[in-house]
From TrEMBL:
InterPro entries: FlgD/Vpr_Ig-like, Secre_tail. Signal peptide: none annotated. Residues 12-77 form the FlgD/Vpr Ig-like domain. It comes from candidate division WOR-3 bacterium. It comes from the Bacteria. It holds the Pfam family FlgD_ig. This is T9SS type A sorting domain-containing protein.
């Protein structure tokens, strides 16, 4: 399973998930028009419980604008996209 908490955040967004089998994982943040803001994870992971954090910054380390962002988590077998609202 996977959870992204909270869906509204000011400083940190936590992405939690459990892998039941080894899989390639990609976690990417997009803005509300589909532009890639930040790639958080792109690697193969073993079965375990994982937690990743997005700090509201883009690839260059700049703080992003307030608004809606899409967090896309892709594994070998599924893709899940969740909306999160960044409040400054």
């Amino acid at each position: 399973g996977m959870s992204i908490l909270p869906t509204q955040f000011r400083s940190r967004l936590q992405i939690n998930f459990i892998l039941n089998q080894e899989a390639g994982i990609r976690i990417v943040v997009y803005d509300n028009v589909g532009r890639r803001v930040r790639s958080l994870v792109n690697q193969r992971l073993k079965p375990d419980r994982y937690q990743f954090t997005w700090d509201g910054r883009d690839e260059a380390g700049r703080s992003v604008a307030q608004g809606v962002y899409l967090i896309r988590v892709e594994t070998d077998s599924q893709t899940k996209t969740t909306k999160a609202v960044y409040l400054k």
